[in-house]
Amino acid sequence: MAHYSTDHQAFRPIPNPISRIFAAIGNALVLMSTSNDRMRQVDALQALSDEDLAKRGLKRDEIARYVFNDVFWH
């Protein structure tokens, strides 16, 4: 699995408004692609039986928290 940082400001300041617009679009695309992978993971876990989820230490109502833990629940 690839790891990345969305904190691009730490590397260099963005000098002008046009560049900021394109940087914001780029950041949004990265976020969308990450969300899409996470949604596929949610779908895959939702497709499992309750017994299979229990083997993984999960309950059905914990799937979203498990998949999005690093984004929403710090």
From TrEMBL:
It comes from the Bacteria. This is DUF1127 domain-containing protein. It comes from Sedimentitalea nanhaiensis.
